[in-house]
Amino acid sequence: MHSPEPPSPERAAELRRRFADEARSERPDLSVLCLLIGAQADGTLDDAGLDAAQLELDRLAGEVPFRPGGPRSWAAALRDLLGERYGYRGSAADYQRLESSLLHSVLLRRRGLPILLSVVWLEVARRAGAPVYGVALPGHFVVGFGPQEEQVLADPFDGGRVLSGADADVLVVGATGAPLEPSMLVPAAPLEVVLRVLNNIRAWAAARPERSDVALWAVELALLVPSHPARLRYERGQLLVQRGAFVTGAEEMEEYAQLVEVVDEGLADRVRTEALAARALMN
Description:
The chain is an alpha+beta fold. The protein folds into 2 domains: 9-184, no CATH class; 229-282, no CATH class. It contains 12 helices and 5 strands. A hairpin with a 6-residue loop joins strand 2 and strand 3 (152-155). Helix 10 (231-242) runs antiparallel to helix 11 and helix 11 (246-260) packs antiparallel against helix 12. The chain is globular. The protein starts with 8 loop residues before the first helix and ends with a helix. 45% of the residues are buried. Belongs to the UPF0162 family. Residues 54-199 form the Protein SirB1 N-terminal domain. This is Tetratricopeptide repeat protein. Residues 1-22 are annotated as: Disordered.
């Protein structure tokens, strides 16, 4: 099973510029950002393909019943359309495929990770006028409908099954060993969703050292998101060294050490030592 091959360096640079502009806009568009991630992974996805994916989301939204009712009715309507009629869902095998984290591929295959299936639910439901948002449960992303006091959760990975409070608790306990907390049910902002998508891609690549190219572009896109974790700088440095860019990687690690020195001098020293070792590889 071969994962998608990346675009040309020129196309990749253009996509990064567009991603940065969208991520820093006043109202970042989740579907645009996820599709740009897909184009960074898959060199066959051109601008016509990006437009086609948006049109498919529009088409699906046009099939949602008009204002079906309260939160539970919205959740049921999306389940009936996406989960039952069109067969969008996930399985354990989807965790082994990079395509499961790429929105355009999920729209074609109707298979994906929980968070990408949730993006499909979110974008279709939003276009149809639903009160919908993502809910980043630990280890399992779902969608929520309605205000907090009337919240209804659905699990797109399970075909859009509407969850009871007990169901959500089982998901969280299974992922963390700890019970569900109310703070876990707050809506996730679009950029939080995007960072989690990129985290999943980095995790996929980390298990496949031969795909450090995927890990690198995923880190570089995450660094373009405002308020990204500072540790991404260190991770980028490590990946550059792994890929033979010893000096550039060492410089990135040294900049990270300077950032963290104020709060953790010991960590800064360890990172500088690692940077020195990377520079020594040039000899």
